[in-house]
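User: I'm putting together a teaching handout on how multi-component assemblies are represented. Below are the sequence lines for each component of a complex, exactly as they appear in our records. Could you produce the 3D structure of the whole assembly as structure tokens, so the students can see both representations side by side? Please keep the chain order the same as the input.
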Amino acid sequence: MNPPKKKKTVAACQALLIIDGADRVSKVDPIRWPASRPDPAILPTRPSRRTEPMGARTRPAGRGSSPFVGRDPEVAELVAGLADALAGRGELFLIAGEPGIGKTRLVEQVEARALERGARVAWGRCWEGGGAPAYWPWTQVVRALAAPTAASRARATTGPGPMVPPLPGVQGEGPAAAAGPAGPEDRLSSATDRFRLFAEVAAFLEQAAAAGPLVVVLDDLHAADPASLLLLRFIAGSLRTVPLLVVATYREVEAQRRPEVVEALADLVRDGRTLHLRGLDRDEVRRLVEGLSGTTSSDEQVADLVRATGGNPLFIREVVHLRMAVPPGGAPARTVPQGVRAVIHQRLAALEAGTVRVLSVGAVVGQEFDRLLVEQAAGLDAIAVGEALAQAERSDLVGRVPGSERRCRFTHGLVR
Ligand SMILES: Nc1ncnc2c1ncn2[C@@H]1O[C@H](COP(=O)(O)OP(=O)(O)O)[C@@H](O)[C@H]1O
Ligand SMILES: [Mg+2]
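Assistant: Of course. Below is the structure of the complete assembly, with chains in the same order as your input.
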């Protein structure tokens, strides 16, 4: 990729950080409390203005009025896991899928159920922009759980709460007070110190959960630092007897690119259950579009949208908004919406130059293309095209046409 193009892609990736879940970012706090259950006052420590409103939160933030469709089996599995956790048998769930497919939104659905049932929910979001301190997602979780609420301060009668583990930044005032960036220079470099810290975090969570069932969400685990992944492995191994549900989301393709994430996931899948999110089906797409636009859609329009978006709710939302912006009688928009563009750019940025070239040639041919034709048009040999297509397939950008050796198809019309 040439430098200006790379610069553009980086800009697109930065845009993605805002776009992916943008409808929540500003509103989401790391912990939410159930409406009906008063704060169990696990940790009466220094008051924090920033955390005060969380105690008053009665419903998950960020869902707005946009309808939630589909995902019945996944919601059912997660709610069953939640019931187990409430009964004292903790569990780990891993939710995997491409950007925009609805991982975070699914967790928010479960969060709502958890709050209704009197559990507390603490979020740790992994930071993809680089420079986050080691343990950043856990720091957010522990900070949120350690923060006193208005109710606990008003009572001020409880004894000492569980020991807050000395994660970087937990006792301080934010990331600036934390240790340096995540990496091999991790402050707690000795294995013994690390083990002690892990045991302290596990004990802290156990005590917090003893005061009331707990849901810990680790969002975008593919971007977690190695120490956080190791800590999750440690925690996951001892969930069975704790009323604690841990839900972690990750993007499969990004996860595959980081060996430490691959290794952690290989271990975590043994301790937990994995839910792979795929595109919404036709009926669900119809309901989503109709919910977003407030108008009915023809079968043809729905089929078009399924073809273009692969059932990705983020893509659908963006396309619907773009179409709604067209004045009555105006020509339908031909451009790819900005949010979709950013997601696609990010996915293409990770590919080898040869793969992008093969996809570009394929895109000229059409939604479906013949690999032989692409070989000839791109001037590449069969091996090079085979490798490129294999990479594109691993990245979920193209798939084989069933029953054909040579034909491939773009998974989303928008990618093309
Ligand atoms: N099942 C769903 N029904 C309706 N909207 C959804 C659904 N899943 C996701 N969305 C919407 O699609 C967008 C992307 O979802 P999000 O959960 O942020 O994706 P991910 O976390 O997988 O990147 C959000 O606007 C979200 O509200
Ligand atoms: Mg997300």
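A couple of points students might notice: The longest helix spans residues 191-210. Confidence is low (pLDDT under 50) at residues 1-30, 35-60, 172-185.
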